[in-house]
Amino acid sequence: MNRxxxxxxxxxxxxxxxxxxxxxxxxxxSTSKPIVLSTWYNQREANIDAWxxxxxxGKALDAVEKGVMNAENDxxxxxxxLGGNPDRTGIVTxxxxxxxxxxxxxAVGALERIKHPISVARAVxxxxxxxxxxxxxxxxxxxxxxxxxEDGKLSDHATKAFxxxxxxxxxxxxxxxxxxxxxxxxxDREQEKSKSMKVDEFNHDTIGMLALDSFGNxxxxxxxxxxxxxxxxxxxxxxIIGAGxxxxxxxxxxxxxxxxxxxxxxxxxxxxxxxxRQGLSPELACKKAVERILKSTPRKLEDLQIGFIAxxxxxxxxxxxxxxxxxxxxxxxxxxxxxxxxxxxx
Length: 346
Ligand code: SD4
Fold this sequence. Notes:
Blueprint: H1 3-12, H2 15-21, E1 29-30, E2 35-39, H3 45-54, H4 60-73, E3 94-99, E4 105-111, H5 117-127, E5 132-134, H6 135-144, H7 156-168, H8 189-195, E6 207-212, E7 218-224, E8 245-248, E9 252-258, H9 260-265, H10 268-277, H11 282-296, E10 306-312, E11 316-321, E12 327-332, E13 338-341
Parallel strand pairs: 4-5
Antiparallel strand pairs: 1-11, 2-6, 2-12, 3-4, 3-7, 6-7, 8-9, 9-10, 10-11, 12-13
The protein binds N-hydroxy-L-asparagine (SD4).
N-hydroxy-L-asparagine is lined by residues 79, 199, 205-206, 224, 226-227, 236-238, 257-260.
């Protein structure tokens, strides 16, 4: 039996839980509040922007919004904001959501030509009677709220990546089923295959951010251009409260990165928070959620990457990923935007 089969067998039989209890996987990390953490170390500058608010006794909600805007502003980011990779028709569509300590939520899906989807998500939360707006309606709402319509041109790197993707993929918009397409975002498929990793090779990806402010309140934000070269109309987990992000101020908060379909399938971030409610550390809660994906996915594990980060009410944090390569950054008084390499299952 190889390692992957062993992991799967242990997981399906529930045996890994007994390993948790013996401390095999426990690695609780703790620091003082305020604290902010976000997915993918290379996007760590976002934490600095969040910290500029948290360190002055600002609110976690303001901090996470400002923090992830840093990634949305970065036109070279493959996976966040208007510089991100387009869908397979060549259009960039953005997903985002935000949640505060009062269960207030806002989200946008498939939003086009607006620079800061996270701020539109916050406006949905604060200025609309709804919690989620998508597509043309989300854009109309954004314009009505004073957001600017951008030109919709692809960034240089996205143009290149799209051209390369088209060389490898035949795609008939009206006859999707008949044409085989690959939903990967990395230009070099062969190299990717050889390393048996997907999303995490990119160096930067969807940003999910969690913060605990000096008042002891939690908030979270998640923003992305989604899976590169996705079908038109596809939504991932990132704008879906409970999947890409969840916050319960009595317990903790969690956010996800990676293949959104699998995170949605298990209501991933909500599940992590519920595991923390049962007393698991943030890391073990994330690990249990990753194991649930292992158990539930109909897809080949080799083709998947998923990472969760979590933060509890006491400032303890942790993460877990399906495969090697996921990392995150933590900023607090003691931790100077420190890099953490996530543990992984396979
Ligand atoms: C999605 N979860 O659209 C996003 C993509 C992502 O790391 O997080 N990639 O499925």
